[in-house]
Design a protein that fits this description.
By secondary structure, the protein is of the alpha+beta class. It is built from six helices and eight strands. The protein folds into two domains: about 35 residues, no CATH class; about 110 residues, no CATH class. It is about 35% helix and about 20% strand. The strands form two sheets. It has a six-stranded antiparallel beta sheet, with no helix packed on it.
């Protein structure tokens, strides 16, 4: 990045003495010409710029994000009201609480006396959940492999197919039919549709 901004002559930028300007030289020339009246972000604004927010209901000075309760006295003033809770996904020790219109209310600190001896960050929680899912999936794959080795029916390899052929009793062999439909009816009853 440093080399690109200070050494790379960009063809889309204006030329000086037949050479294109570098991005850093062009910025410096613009600031000298127009003045530096840029409003820069404060360190606090930079810190909160990419913090995700969730809506939560404040209850008796507490607000809770998954498995992490946060306590601060100022939350008692907005008891049972919905507030916006901004948190750092890597640092679960504190959260920034704002009213729904965006006005800063307070910073709440983690209190670990109810759930966990140490606060759990979103990243740690996500990694733990992912590991549990992968372990469960691996267990199911192992069980599937064991199931494939087990035979479905524990039967001898040489099967007796004579049970599939309907047995005709001696009385049916000697039976005399007067009509064809009687014969067909008996055949159907015997399970042999010829």
């Amino acid at each position: 990045m440093q080399r690109y901004n200070h050494s790379h002559e960009h063809s889309a930028l204006p030329k000086v003495n037949g050479k294109s300007m570098t991005p850093a030289a062009y910025r410096k020339a613009l600031l000298a010409e127009e003045g530096d009246n840029i409003e820069y972000l404060t360190p606090g604004e930079l810190r909160e710029m990419f913090m995700p927010e969730e809506k939560r209901v404040a209850q008796r000075g507490w607000v809770e994000l998954p498995n992490n309760p946060y306590l601060v006295r100022e939350l008692i003033e907005v008891d049972r009201q919905t507030v916006r809770v901004a948190y750092d996904i890597h640092n679960p020790n504190e959260v920034i609480i704002r009213q729904m219109d965006g006005a800063y209310l307070c910073t709440a600190l983690w209190n670990g006396n109810t759930v966990s001896p140490v606060p759990v960050s979103r990243v740690e929680k996500a990694l733990e959940a992912r590991a549990k899912r992968r372990i469960k999936l691996a267990g199911s794959k192992i069980q599937d492999a064991k199931d494939e080795l087990r035979s479905v029916i524990d039967a001898p390899r040489e099967s007796d197919y004579s049970l599939l052929i309907p047995q005709v009793s001696a009385s049916e062999k000697d039976k005399v039919y007067l009509f064809k439909y009687e014969y067909e009816h008996d055949i159907k009853q015997g399970g042999n549709n010829r």
